[in-house]
What we know:
By secondary structure, this protein is mainly α. It has 3 domains: 10-116; 151-259, no CATH class; 307-373. Helices cover 86% and strands 0% of the residues. It contains 12 helices and no strands. It has helices at residues 10-46, 54-118, 122-137, 140-167, 171-185, 189-222, 226-239, 244-277, 281-294, 299-332, 336-349, 354-373. Helix 4 (140-167) runs parallel beside helix 6. The longest helix is centred in the N-terminal third of the chain and has 65 residues, at 54-118. The model is unreliable at 1-14 (pLDDT under 50).
Amino acid sequence: xxxxxxxPIGDNHGAGSGITSAFIAILVLIAVVTFLGLxxxxxxxxxxxxxxxxxxxxxxxxxxxxGLTACGLMLSAVIVYRxxxxxxxxxxxxxxxxxxxxxxxxxxxxADTYVRSxxxxxxxxxxxxxxxxxxxxxxxxxxARRFENxxxxxxxxxxxxxxxxxDSSDFHRARGELAALAERFGADVRIQEARERLEKAADxxxxxxxxxxxxxxEDLMGAARWESAERMALELAEKxxxxxxxxxxxxxxxxxxxxxxxxxxxxxxxxIQELVHERRWQEAVTAARQFIQTFPVGPDxxxxxxxxxxxEANADIQARQALERHIKQYIQQQQYWDALALARRIISxxxxxxxxxxxxxxxxxxxxxxxxxxxQK
Length: 377
């Protein structure tokens, strides 16, 4: 709750508490001064000897005056404090009443706004009642004619909206419009004709969509992009769940993919066996690894995994033999530095091979020939 100045009512109580504390502190100070003055006076009366001189008399008089003055101030402070307490209480009461009046004013304003928003214009109400009265006074055939005109106008307008939805391929909203018309006005030839046009348009759009997607899927299958082709066929089936063509397209993609993989698998396996028979071991190893990566499951893949180690060993032997032949060619052509470099490479890459063992014995002779030939060019 707030007061008329916009601040919390509790602020006045806080200010009052601060003033009260200040007055209490002042009263305590005055009381201390009064007590000291009276105590000094009593001491001087009971023990006059030490204070018999002029200074003592002056001190006694000063203390008495201070005590009496403090008593007067204390009485004045008590009176002022009581008046201020009554004033703060009155201010608090005024703040509370102001806040209550403000809340009541807001409530009245909201109520007036609601009444004005729900209030019917008397002139409009009078015109409406006049039209109803006029209609009731018309003959039965005239009222029926007016009703027919109203129905005709509304049906015509809603059918025009439906046609717009059909033209924009918004078939869902077009079906909603026709369903609302049929529910309100019952069987109508124009509604049935519009529904037939709607379904024909939907069928034509569905057929075009299916034909377009089918052509795209054909292109993807031709490029062996089977995952993309299957995904597009599934999306088409989700879009047209009642279309048999979409379901048939999925089955065809899956069937063609399976047939392609079987034929491709068989051709790859036969190619590997042909490379083995031709003793083209390096190419056979590469093709076997590709086959296992493409078709990881199956008896043929398991058989290749068992043979891969032998194929790799044969490929290494074949590679070393080819390098050995190159060394012999370099020596025959008196290219001793090239022969020396290749021999060292074989010893480094295949240290345990028979070729490496043989080249270690021949390496000093090749180095001697190379040095005799002169510096390497």
